[in-house]
Amino acid sequence: MMRRHAMLIGSLILAAGTAMAEIVVPDPEWEPRPVDTTISASFDDWLASFRQRARNEGISAETLAVLGDIRPLESVIERDRTQFEFSRPVWVYLETAVSDARIDNGRRALERHAGLFDRIEAQYGVDRHIIAAIWGLESAYGAVRGDTDTLSALATLAADGRRGAFFETQLIAALRILENGDTTAERLRGSWAGAMGHTQFMPTSFEALAVDFDGDGRRDIWEDAPDDALASAANFLRNAGWKSGQPWGFEITLPDGFDYMQADRRILRDEQAWAAMGVARADGAAMPDHGRASVLLPAGAGGAAFLVYDNFAALERYNTADAYVIAVGHLADRLRGGGPITSDWPYGDRALTFEERRELQRLLSAAGFDTLGVDGLIGPNTVNAIRAYQQARGLIPDGYAPASLLDRLRAGE
Known about the structure:
With about 425 residues, the chain is α+β, with helices and mostly antiparallel strands.
């Protein structure tokens, strides 16, 4: 699966924001292909100049010699260009992410590595089920860690230029990983976008947060034994602000007449305040006492609703897409014996394509509801514009953007 951690990890699988989280679902048949020779010359020119920049960053000539074996990969560029077109609605993603097979395999992994999870929980204070869920989503519990040459993938994306500075930084970090002796160039393999190992760390995040948990002198997230990788994920979450004992969130039901303007991540209340407004746990249990939380509607008023805590935000540091965070949290709940999500989803809706999201932003801004940019990402500014439009038109102001909303805007309504 494509992995790019936001902020520290720069997570690159996301295709959405607050109101309409969508994940690129990977094609298991996809394999990287060498780039067409028509663009090889530009790659060679970039590589020559990059070598000097890497030397200026302190990379030794011995380590730089590995660049002689890299090659541009056309399919990496294709995946980078088209990832939004393969995005899916949150409910479609969850069906795959939290499948029966993934639950069963995760429970077996937890049992098989119980001692390891005991030690990780004791040292980092992060729930084992959360770490196992990340492991399950990132690499199917180590079974699918990616086989793309990391240096070639990062160099391809850096030379391509669309996000050149970011990927050059990642490539230099990957070279430092080799220089430090954590792994070899032959073993430096992972996803098409440069993420690596059991828990799919980008190189800069590996540098900052990977740990040598098994004490062998190397931070090895690539080896079959998952000790370093799982502990590194726990270390990442601890540094992202994970609160021991607090849930990521849970499914809720909303009362008739609920003010959907309150379903905003910026609006935080303790559970009893939400309960006083008629918000209840979907499983019928009493509201807990874990602190302030906000209401999240990943598919608008027609889908499941969640009360989410600070630990949701910690998971967002690993990957900013709501669908991913919900999948991690829900898979963790299922691994500990919880039940499925009970609410319906708006199954008749489809996800907007990247270009349709750009069109939505242009039409909203033209209608007087400024999205503060046209980037194809449904982030907070676009959600606020959608809410304002919905409220002005007498619609439920849930910030959700189905195709029907775009049709209304196209019609000038």
